[in-house]
User: Fold these one by one.
Assistant:
Number 1:
Amino acid sequence: MFFLFFETFYQKNDSMEKEKTPPYFDIVTHWMLKNAFKWRFCILLACGFATVLCVKNLVESGSSLLQALEATAYCGAIISMIYVVITFEYNQHSELSKSLKKTYKLTYKKCSIYSLPEFSKNRHEMQTFFDSHKQALDNGNLNDVYTEFNKIGNLQAKLATQDVLNYLEDISIGVRRGILDENLTKELFLTLFITYYNKLHKFIEHHRKEKNSLQIWAEFTTLAEKWKQA
């Protein structure tokens, strides 16, 4: 039961720190459980042999047949419990491993969208607009930048910016809810998140004021700030 307890304890702590890739302990635990399950019949045979020796010693020491049978029954119950525990914990750990693999696969699939040609075009549109207004952003002339942002001539850049930030917002929500693995996402997107945050957080704050909503792209900025401070 030790492995089951520790696995539950590990899952609880891990959820508080936001999904991490399996540590060394998790790999060792899986190896031990896998081998315990693989050799379970040998383990049970050894326990059975120990039971026979125990009964033999009881008989030779002058114990009654009833006592020997009771000892056999107790040992049999213990052997059954060992078998059930090994099987149950191995199955539990296998399910956890499958769940983690599924999460990693989903995370990688979601993050890989960033490299698709369609998305690359949006990134380029957004980058071009904000690079051309870098001086105004650096000087704090957010009203001027925001006015240009909303002009019909910059509609493509506006839509592209919304698509990119909405995508990063979706990623951040997935991480917070545990749908995506934070450690893998951070490995792939740490530099990207911090770069976009440094470049756009003032613009995002201004956009929130204009729209009178503090929730706009809040998941993205919260996660970026967390990673930046780590």
Number 2:
Amino acid sequence: MDKLEIQERILKGENLHTEFKESLSDNETLAKSIVCFANTDGGQLIIGISNS
């Protein structure tokens, strides 16, 4: 995934296949997101972006 693709995903916002995390400080929440993606069709977790 290149810079342009990441920017496009950010502009589209979160959905079933894209989730934003502001930081890596909450390991439990991060682990839950990864497990959810692993148990479905997968997705992208973008770190450093606020959910709002």
Number 3:
Amino acid sequence: QFASLKCQIKALEVWVVNHVCCLRFLRINFNLMAEIILEREVVGVGEESFFTSNQL
């Protein structure tokens, strides 16, 4: 009984560590994606204004 409890606690620790790492990884990915999207939008706006000013 005690041994199985120890096993469950160990499994829970591993699960928590894995999820914390996963969440951290996802947060980093989300930040990277947000930065890339923002950069793209800024570049896109810059290109659009550049083209419209040339057409005028």
